[in-house]
Specification:
single chain; Double Stranded RNA Binding Domain; disordered N terminus; globular; alpha+beta; two-stranded antiparallel ribbon; eleven-stranded mixed sheet
């Protein structure tokens, strides 16, 4: 997708006596970004919700296949296509599991369905030297057919660094294509986490993202009723 760049200097008044500065943000996934403001509850979330929109009117959710977009700062481009699919599948599964508490998860659009399009952007890769720096012949095909196995997830965790990446989400009306909301979740600052090369830690990082979005989404639903 094209790149959308905002250079914003206006202030948006969200509540009497309280103003939040609109934030500039450059997206490699979402086109034609509206004005984003920082969440009052989570400083790491930029948000936009359609004025007069009613998110509470939607009771079904369709999650599109997430995109994984590598940072241009990567000198190493070693994430293989099957590993991107594996990470995307796990991301989608964790979202549908959590959001299934408040929405019916569907696989086809219909009235009352909101579509979630998402991407993890600015993903950095960890380059390994020595024996872990190569993938044996045939391993890619193996991972594509056995992505529930722990060893495939561990191999993924050894390559992907989520710290410093962003999760970009847009919510769209499934029948009209109307943009309802945008959420950008920043994933912290690039600091090394103990045990970060294990899938357990990577899964925990994704789980925290899911929970942050869930909290933000349910608050938006409550505000629109």
């Amino acid at each position: 997708m094209g790149r959308a760049i905002q250079q914003l200097i206006v202030l948006v008044i969200l509540a009497p006596g309280i103003s939040y500065a609109a934030e500039s943000y450059e997206s490699s996934f979402i086109e034609n970004l509206p004005i984003l403001t920082k969440s009052a509850d989570d400083a790491g979330v930029l948000e936009w919700t359609k004025p007069e929109g009613n998110i509470a009117a939607y009771d079904k959710l369709l999650v599109s296949q997430p995109h994984i977009i590598l940072s241009a700062d990567n000198k190493y481009k070693g994430l293989q296509p099957d590993q991107m699919v594996l990470l995307a599948d796990r991301l989608a599964a964790l979202f549908t599991s959590r959001l299934g508490d408040v929405l019916e998860i569907v696989d086809a659009p219909s009235e009352g369905t909101v579509v979630m399009n998402m991407a993890v952007t600015e993903v950095l890769l960890k380059k390994k030297r020595g024996l872990l720096s190569y993938t044996p012949l045939g391993a890619a095909a193996h991972a594509a057919t056995s992505n529930t196995k722990v060893k495939d997830l561990e191999a993924l965790a050894q390559k992907v660094q989520l710290q410093g990446a962003n999760l970009e989400i847009e919510l769209v009306d499934a029948t009209t294509g109307e943009l309802l909301a945008i959420r950008i979740l920043k994933i912290g600052g690039g600091k090394k986490i103990k045990g970060s090369e294990s899938w357990d830690v990577t899964r925990q990082e994704i789980g925290e993202l899911v929970e942050r979005f869930y909290t933000n989404y349910t608050a938006a639903v409550a505000a629109s009723t």
